[in-house]
Design a protein that fits this description.
mainly alpha
Length: about 140
């Protein structure tokens, strides 16, 4: 798969075409390709494509990838953490698992504390019940 062709298609908002190109590729490879493109280009169009895929599939994979891009590539953009927080809360509602709970705790460490202390404490206790060996101190 030609990376430059994927970049061109994403930049031209040919999301359906890119989505179809990815149909025979496993999620780990898709993640690698899109993260590489996002970091190399810093183009918000990559996030646009991921949101397109999330909207069309409602898949945890695409949600996680959107969050990862927002917290990594676009963390310097005002509002990126807020959007990632929203998507993280939504992901938790769909799948209340340890990974989604732990990810939410990140938002309590930010200066703006998107996740309030009392909610963080509830989440920490829930995770501790799931895995008593987890260290949160």
């Amino acid at each position: 798969m030609d990376k430059n062709e994927i970049i061109r298609l994403i930049n031209e908002a040919e999301y359906k075409t890119v989505f179809d190109l990815f149909s025979d590729i496993d999620n780990a490879e898709i993640r690698g390709i899109l993260l590489e493109i996002a970091y190399d280009t810093e183009s918000i169009s990559v996030l646009g494509f991921v949101v397109f895929a999330l909207h069309n599939t409602n898949s945890e994979f695409w949600s996680d990838l959107a969050i990862e891009i927002l917290l990594g590539v676009f963390s310097y953009i005002e509002g990126a953490y807020s959007i990632a927080y929203y998507l993280s809360v939504k992901a938790l509602k769909q799948n209340r698992n340890k990974e989604n709970l732990e990810r939410l705790l990140f938002f309590n460490k930010l200066p703006e504390k998107l996740l309030k202390d009392d909610e963080a404490l509830k989440i920490k206790n829930e995770v501790l019940l799931m895995d008593s060996k987890q260290d949160f101190l």
